[in-house]
């Protein structure tokens, strides 16, 4: 069963999400939610993923409180109230 989850993206990427920084997606698993995110907002793909399909080094994707890079698998069943956050690492000097 699909559930609604909250998604947030940085203001810098809102031009890729029709001006929205917060919205909802309906999915069964985290993996499906990530696929739907770039399917519904295709302009995000180039900002989030490399040409090889890997998450870009300066991008952090958080599922609730966990960076998805720390997760062993992405086919985690979603529950109502779950959150997916897109963050961009910023560096400078």
UniProtKB/TrEMBL annotation:
<dbReference type="InterPro" id="IPR003749">
    <property type="entry name" value="ThiS/MoaD-like"/>
</dbReference>
<dbReference type="InterPro" id="IPR012675">
    <property type="entry name" value="Beta-grasp_dom_sf"/>
</dbReference>
<protein>
    <submittedName>
        <fullName>Molybdopterin synthase sulfur carrier subunit</fullName>
    </submittedName>
</protein>
<dbReference type="Pfam" id="PF02597">
    <property type="entry name" value="ThiS"/>
</dbReference>
<dbReference type="InterPro" id="IPR052045">
    <property type="entry name" value="Sulfur_Carrier/Prot_Modifier"/>
</dbReference>
<dbReference type="InterPro" id="IPR016155">
    <property type="entry name" value="Mopterin_synth/thiamin_S_b"/>
</dbReference>
């Amino acid at each position: 069963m699909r559930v609604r989850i909250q998604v947030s993206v940085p203001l810098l990427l809102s031009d890729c999400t029709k001006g929205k920084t917060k919205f909802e997606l309906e999915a069964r698993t985290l993996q499906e939610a990530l696929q739907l995110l770039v399917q519904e907002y295709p302009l995000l793909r180039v900002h989030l993923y490399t040409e090889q399909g890997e998450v870009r080094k300066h991008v952090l994707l958080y599922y609730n409180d966990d960076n998805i890079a720390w997760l062993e698998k992405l086919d985690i069943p979603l529950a109502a109230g779950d959150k997916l956050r897109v963050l961009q690492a910023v560096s400078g000097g």
